[in-house]
């Protein structure tokens, strides 16, 4: 089937049931044959995946939804696709659960969160509606999902319109328990086109009272804030969000939009502000992370999952009728007002057999069975060098990670890693790490790489689209090092 080159507005918002059934079957066939399909990350069967939604623990299982447009690798009429897991690694597809089929979400089921309440899962999300003049109207909506997976929408909106002084760019509610009731934080834009985070409170999840703007910085946060998540613990308050149009002087970034965070000593509910917040920081130092969603799990871990893809960027898999994926699940830890992001311990369940061990005296180049592995490296103090993934025998291609632990600097270059994309935003990312012994834990899965540095002090995530013969690993280092590599199995989906 030829790829659709031009999508009209009418096609993007055509109801699912009006599409010919053969269209989806042809898309599935093309996507399934993609050379860049993933082994252990969540990916769409067809079409476009974007924001993770409703990440939660309910009915003795982990749940995640994602915004989905199954009819093509473009942004169109969105729904929520549902997956469940027993171990945060193997995800079972449960199908589309929240459809754009009501008066208040007729043009898309947009992002939101989920909260277990008694024997049901409460879903809060934004309904997108366009009028005859194509003007946007945003409604904050609710639904209940029972243990069987049946979803029943709440007939009337939780919040019918943004407060006075704010535009219809008003979306992505996060709902969580706070004190004896519930708190909602939501991304917004004021009438001067400045990004804000608004808060609401409720005692019953149905009636919401506006509290005002969340105070967490004295800097301007661009023209819009998306996907805010506030996690309050006994020791800190972590706010994760996506400011669009942020000035790079406030927090340097090179992606089209950053995913950022601040950490406060606590959250003052009466004043509606974070106490002693840090400066704004990048959540991920790579090329492709956005719309991260996090929550506090019943075992008290702070867990997160991200969209690995960016708005308004064309990716090579668009031509194969699928786009984007979700990151692996990370555990977030806060120590001395510093954020550490680590792969959840359950990721070890993916290791297929024993590790290949190597060191300075081993061969510096070797081929992996597949581009689906975990690599751990520990370098002697003051080491510097270059690690190249997705390389070939000629060693003239690959994703390069240059490291200098003496000066505390890492530079990642994907310009020679395979299919080229996102040229406008550059091929190189450089960032600082602590000047100490360097440890890298790297997860490679066909067309995604997640790099964890010094036990999660920094993380860098990126999509890479290599050719089939690019399965080599090459390491040059001026000091000693120890390394282990595990091939990883595919997940049981």
List the helices and strands and how they pair.
Elements (H helix, E strand, L loop, with lengths): L8 H4 L8 H12 L14 E12 L2 E9 L9 E7 L5 E8 L10 E9 L2 E11 L5 E10 L5 E3 L12 E13 L2 E10 L4 E8 L6 E5 L10 E9 L4 E8 L15 E5 L1 E3 L4 E3 L5 E2 L6 E8 L5 E7 L13 E2 L1 E2 L3 E6 L2 E6 L12 E4 L5 E3 L4 E8 L4 E8 L6 E7 L4 E8 L11 E5 L6 E7 L2 E6 L4 E6 L8 E6 L3 E7 L6
Kindly report the oligomeric state of this protein.
single chain
Stretches where pLDDT is under 50 for at least 5 consecutive residues are none
What's the main sheet like?
6 strands, antiparallel
Shape: globular
Count of runs of 4 or more consecutive helical residues: 2
Helix proportion of residues, in percent? under 10%
**What Rg is obtained from the alpha carbons, in whole angstroms?**
22 Å
Strand segment count: 36
- Sequence of strands across the biggest β-sheet: 25-36-27-32-33-34
Distance between the termini: 26 Å
Q: Look at the helices and sheets and give the structural class.
A: mainly beta
Mean of pLDDT: 96
